[in-house]
# Entry
Amino acid sequence: MKKINQVRDQVEDQVRFQVVGQVGGQVIGQVWWQVKGQTWNQVGGQIWNQVRDQVRRISEKTQDQP
# Structure
């Protein structure tokens, strides 16, 4: 009887470990994507603002010239 309990405990531990590992991996993955997405948006936004400013300056310069 004791042997069966040991085996059952081992199996439960393994299953629990797998489930926790999978769920943990998914959560970490989601957090990672969110963080990466936010940083990318910030970086992309900064680049976009710089490009937009440059384009605006160029268009103003060309308009100023007769």
About this structure: The mean pLDDT is 89. The radius of gyration is 28 Å. The longest helix spans residues 2-64.
